[in-house]
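Re: [help] complex structure
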Amino acid sequence: MSNTLSPEAVQEQKPYLQWGLTEAEYDRYAALLGRLPTYTEIGLASGMWSEHCAYKYSKPVLKTFWTHNDRVLMGPGEGAGVIDIGEGKAVVFKAESHNHPSAVEPYEGAATGVGGIIRDIFSIGAKPIAVLDALAFGDPQDPHQKQLIDGVVAGIGDYGNAIGIPNLGGEVRFSAAYTKNPLVNAMCVGVMDKAKIQKGKAAGVGNALIYVGAKTGRDGINGASFASAEFSAEEAADRSAVQVGDPFMEKLVMDACLEVTRDYQDQLVGMQDMGAAGLVSSTVEMAGKANSGMVLNLDLIPQREPNMTPFEIMLSESQERMMLCVQSGAEDAIIAVFKRYDLDAVVCGHVESGHRYRLLHRGEVVCDVPVSALTTDAPVYHQASRKPARLADPAPHWQPVIDDARATLEALLQDPNVADKRCIFRRYDAQVQTNTVLAPGADAGVVRVRGTHRALAMTADSNGRYLALDPEIGGAITVAEAARNLVATGAEPLGITDCLNYGDPTKPEMFYELAESAKGIVAATKALNTPVISGNVSLYNETSGVAIDPTPMIGMVGLIEDLTAIGTPGFKQGADWIYLIGETRADFDGSLLQVLETGGVAGSLRPLDLVAEKRNQDLVLAAIRGHLTTASHDVADGGLLVALAEMSFPAGIGATLDVALPQAQLFAESQGRFLVTVPQNHQAAFEALAGPLATRIGTTGGADLVVQALDGRVAAPVAALKQLNLEGLACQLK
Amino acid sequence: MKAAVVSFPGSNCDDDLIWALETVCHQAATKVLASATTLDGFDLVLLPGGFSYGDYLRSGAIAKFAPIMAAVRDFAAAGGYVIGICNGFQILTEAGLLPGALQANTSLEFRCAQAPLVVANAETAFSNAYADGATITLPIAHGEGNYYADPATLAALEANHQVVFRYADNPNGSLNDIAGIVNAQGNVLGMMPHPERAVEALLGGTDGLGVFDSLMAATKGEPHVQHA
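Output below.
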């Protein structure tokens, strides 16, 4: 499409349809401007009014989220959210999806996902201290999936390893639901002095806008609109919409920006990264947040290629770029910092009076629109919602028949969802920065906070299987499970970030899934005191009309107040008592066992008892903080027996248990459960604390896992089970 | 002991080394930028891990041209203690201060793991705090740690007892399981494992302290005299 189209020709030829705008949206924009938009102006709108930037379909849902409690220092709306962790420090975190780019170009898609989320964290002024990822793929034995997994893992590793931020794992899931639409959600966590929080705003007439970092090229043009549309089967044609990452450049940009934040706090007005919709979104959002006007001279933007059009310059998603607003007069000092890092840093515009967003290019005004036309006046749609047919009439509850419980256990331990993920996580540097207390493999990653006696625990969780059966209950379960993972390490959950991964929101059934799961998330976050402080939305995860399971990814961070009270899953010694906390019932619908035995999920979920959930979590937290336990683990995928096996693996210590349950229920996925071990000398104290919430079910010791159920007995050497678990995924990826 | 930690653009373990030296070992440590040209007054020079200059072209290939490297060469030639860890080892081989080269791991993948090592020579300035033949565990995190040298060089390394650390379970394909070597004079060490990541029990182990303890003993009371 030519870039010299006149406004009339744009109106006539409708190039915006290819960029994801509708005719009605074009008309709305023209009405806001009071005239026909130019080619450049409508291009900017296509980026800023994309779902990725404007949340036009999801906003009504996002507004229902619970976003503040007394610890939240900054909620959604900025680069990342911030929570007070005491001792003058704050934790900053956010997650973002890079599903679409990773599907098309796995290595660069995943790498730039990591790069983008890191920029969001240091744009607040925080030093990034950890990265996590929640990934979902199809069958790991499928050759195409293997290549996809390898590319994504290599991309995440190469970026994070080089920039020097430890990767604390997260999760990797496998289900046919993600075969065509993999999920690549990256989360970054930072720590800062809470007095130094930066916001992405451009205020003060005459203050300068400084462009920093990599040059702008023709990569990722209009990627935001790309990510806000459904895939066609011919996805290769979209490759130019994927960006290319350079972690070396990002490290320089990060170090320089943190130095400016530290040394020029008074002169730095605002800072924002150039993510989705690049230069336009970063600048116009900064103007919007400060209710300012702005002018940019595009001739001053460092460019990698000649003859870039205003449309290309403004919508390029070249990586490793930041926009700073600095006080008039401080430009030279701040630019000098970036020059020391050999980085481009140029004044490219200024804050103006009024509320216009103006762009100059080769002596011409190529854009002159109200700031609000690109920000607050973007459309918001209240979508129709309709319960999908599959949910209207659920199948009766499924009841497994277990003939050989050991064989069932072995099959579950080898399932890629349960199998040891070491073959993936060992490709990430987990220890750089030398603060990592728990590396990938425990229930959550744990990083100590230097200068305090505290540590942060963090996890990234999803479970589309449950949402496929009931989006609301599944949404609540996802939050609760993330919290359980933190609690099992001895951390009090603080808050969450989310990536909402769904299908096409213009389909009422898809919108229903989004809206219903939000209800569950809201209820769980309130019950567990974990407000949503940041997040993103990834819709259109569909290929040729088939959507993924609705999959909200919950990234959660928790606070460990005492470095000497950190829980880990492995049995530590023989002759410790083993306690089960929480009730086990015949909950098999949506379970991993159901997938294994029937090839899919069916049925309906028991409502999540959030009161019991919170009570059980509080108990485990109190027990760990009271130094009463030697090991702690949540019971999740695959149920009780799988969790016990996982506890036996680290030290190769077995256990003997007597459980008053039918053996099938050893594989039930009832919620709200934990396993803890308690040394015998703490038995009285623990039982006094737990009351009826904990049931003593056995003791640690020996080299075998031996479980007597009501109607059968399972016995297996720990070493053999461990080997199966270790090889489960590694063998499938070979 | 006064230590200089050289920071190249892209180094990412420089701060970790300084933390280990200052906070854990209570030694003076100064970050020296790669653009600097002198190392006067230091007893020890450390080249940290990371991805100097992005490790573009080849690990350490660009770093060897950094201004500070002339000073590192002079410092080593005058008998000063130099230690290169991970990317620092790669830089030392690229700069010719240590023999051999570090190729891509045979797995062709980055590998982050706890690596059991055998102390092959406890008589060096970098390893005297360990018992000869002791098994220690240090973290590794690298994609290009596969040590290679031609047969004559390898034979000379072995004959001169220049191999200081060997992998007990070779993670990357290194010849002779080599994890760390010293130069013939014994004052320049390169090693792929990260001793600075193993100095606090909270973080999983303290087996790396021996490297720093050894150097403190080697430099004790006789600060290195810089060349004129």
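Chain B has one domain: 2-219.
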